[in-house]
Amino acid sequence: MTLSSPSSGTGDNFGHIEVRGIDFIPDRERHGKASELFTVWAASNVTYLYIVLGGALIGLGLNAGQAIGIVILGNLFWALVGILSVSGPASGTSGSVVMRAMFGICGNRVVVAVTGWIISVAYEAINLSLGALAGFALLESIGIHPATVWKLAVVLVTAIVTFAISIYGHATIVRLSGPFSIALTVSVAILAAFVLPQVNLHFVPQGAPHGLALMAALFTGLTIISSGPLSWGTSSDYARYLPPSTSWRAVASWTALGGFLPSVLLGILGVLAGTAIDMTDPQTSFASILPGWFYPVFLLTIVVSSITNNVLTVYSSGLQLQAVGIEARRAITVSFDGFVGLALTLYALFVSDFTDTLKNILELSVSLLGPTFGIYAVDILLRRNVYDGVALNDESPLSPFWFSGGVNWAGILALAAGSGAALLCANTSVLVGPISNALGGADLSTLTGPLVAAGIYAAIAPRPRAIMTIPATSESAQ
After folding, report:
1. Alpha carbon 198 to chain centroid, angstroms
2. Calpha distance 123→224 (Å, rounded)
3. What is the reported pTM?
4. Residues 100-118: what's their mean pLDDT?
5. What is the CATH number of the domain that holds 118?
6. Is residue 24 part of a domain?
7. Rounded CA gap, 207 and 166, in Å?
8. What is the pLDDT of residues 315-333, one digit of tens each?
9. Range of 117's domain?
10. Is residue 413 assigned to a domain?
């Protein structure tokens, strides 16, 4: 099924609405270099959220050294994000379609709806809420009392900018990622210049844990930090326009580095800030150490980073809606997706404290996202990253990915087992698994979910057919 076809050129040009959605991108329309993936991922991850997460580790009772170690270890999951991205150039289609090879045509619709679209919309609402709250504070800092009409205007402007970039699509995202990366990096560097002189490297949190309690805090921190990279199982969406001859090492490396470097540096900045200020209310606490002229810039940085982070989320969730079975053009699915995310944000900010509910959903999402990552990575290894993008877009019972009644039960069983194992080891505000409870609250879900799912899938998955090939082109994208 082809949802759209380009009217001219590549159908993917800066300043023009991208024509293609999840349909296969032929070789003649492939373009770009793997190195451009670095700024795509850096722009979306130079975000205030990672500073908050780093500070949260101090709140768990960890000292600076322990917290920095967890920041680095948790962000090693970006290597998996890089691995998943290599299926983009190989298949010429989005990750939500490549997953049909793991779960079957029909089974994948359910998996993508639950582990993809629903979680993505929750992230959209959280990001919009964070950006809007910073926007409210920005108005206050420049002397404008944010009455309801002003607050509504902030939310709408933030949402419109985000959704517009996502609707324009891939080429526009790639082109804007460089300027966004530079602007956000400069702003964060200035922030660091004011924070670092306040750092207390000898800071010892009150009631620092020891023994089993320390282990629990370390693993809980690992889950908090790894939730960042584990939310980006859509990495192939941004590599699918690259020529199939593009080095898979280059694709994986630039993707992983683009996410890893800002996540680690900002996480460490958050840890160091946590030794000097109260990171339970960082927005207010930062005001006490920042000069008056820079505080509005700091708040604006939060707003802009929420936009750049959300652009990729909204873009991919629009593709996920198509993969679920919505037969509409990508611009329409993105618009619908944005409307739902905006509605949730408005409800959370103006009607009910729904933000806590969304956060609870995201806490549990690691138990679904982690196993999906493990299965996806194993499938790439089993198939040696050879995917037939045309066959993946064939949704008929004659498709090689129809399996049994449209379901690849190996993938479904592996996902169920991995998620079950993760939940048994999870420690969240809404669920504490029995294994986590026995270990004093240690949250091992980040490790057990992917490992169990990957192991089971590797053992029982049907071996790929040798006929699945995509002809290479002579184009180079190193």
Report:
1. 31
2. 15
3. 0.91
4. 95
5. 1.10.4160.10
6. no
7. 46
8. 999 999 999 999 999 999 9
9. 30-460
10. yes
